[in-house]
Amino acid sequence: MNSLWKLVDGIGEKVVGTIRYTVSIWTMVYLSLRTVFTNRKNQSFRELVKVISSQIYFTGFQALPLIGMLALIAGTLVIIQASSQLSKVGGGEMLGNLLVVLIIRELGPLITALVVVARSGTAVASELGNMKVNSEIEALESMGIDPLSYIVFPRLLGGIISVVCLALYFCVVALFGGFLVAQFLQPIAFSYYMESLAFAISLEDVMLFLVKNVFSGIVIFVICCYQGFQVKQSFTEVPQVTTKAVVNSIMYTVSFNSFVTLLVYVKHLKRLGII
């Protein structure tokens, strides 16, 4: 009985800790949005745009080759497997629907988020951790510049823009680059392919795509900024908070994507009268 109560207490502590952590990161989002408009006295708009542009360049532009390679591989494999398997059961007309579900709804947002966490999330967390150790944060505050508006907000906004654009780039390369490569192994008529995709894509798919990627951009960069600020005095804390930033970013992103996907399919099942 004692072991059972210990287990319950442990689960309760983890749930409470998760709730507190979630409240903390969303509070940072709110505060960074508020301070960027209220704390403009010692901060120029040009400097703000410069930091945002740098974040977009690093997170978005420099990640294009890696995202493109992953998209080409994923698109080719999905198209070949989908077309070959559907043709065996006479479901070739469902090719577009399957590609939209797999690439636009699921693989695009998920793979993009993982790449951004691995490249940019780790960089942001370690950068802010080193700034904290070197007392650069305190130096900004002494000059009357709020770190939330000068450091967090530009990385947050730049991260959201980069994640959405990278996910769109992933989908385009996967659907069209994958189609070109798949032609060597599983020839498909281009007109049939385009028509199948055009009929499959709906407004709901576009909204899901935007919701997942905007949320991923917000969560990844606010968590990495939050963890970077948790460094106290030692450089040895930097890799620790970076690891926590990566783990928490992946956990929140994957959980949210899975939850949204579950809601969508429950809605479809209800519409069909199955549940």
Per the principal axes of the C-alpha atoms, what is the gross shape? globular
Strand content: under 5%
The Cα radius of gyration reads 22 Å
> What is the arithmetic mean of pLDDT?
86
Structure description:
By secondary structure, the chain is mostly helical. It has one domain. The protein is built from nine helices and no strands. Helix 4 (95-133) crosses helix 7 (190-200), helix 4 (95-133) runs antiparallel to helix 9 and helix 8 packs antiparallel against helix 9 (237-271). It is globular and about 70 Å long. The mean pLDDT is 86.
Write the layout of secondary structure elements.
Layout: H1 2-38, H2 45-59, H3 64-88, H4 95-133, H5 136-142, H6 147-182, H7 190-200, H8 203-229, H9 237-271
